[in-house]
Amino acid sequence: MRIYVAVDAELLERLAAGERISAPAFSAESEDEEDELAALEEAAEHGAVVAAADVDGTDDVALEDIASFHVDLDGTGDLAWFATQEIDAVIREAQKR
Asked: pTM (2 decimals)?
């Protein structure tokens, strides 16, 4: 199941260190693309960064569960996509917020 987790710089640093984290998570009402987008946008309202994660029945996530990160870089509400390998850049962006 895909969930969208609202995270901040501290939680991102914990993920980068190999820890599992728990944070506010939002899931789509269906697999419809519009529902997925709504869940992603809702998570973005609750954190500096959204981590899209694939989990089985838990809201605890580790870096290996995450498919991508999403960040509003310019305050427009448009979310930029980052791969998990770019976590250091995502942490720097989260620290600005």
From this structure: 0.94
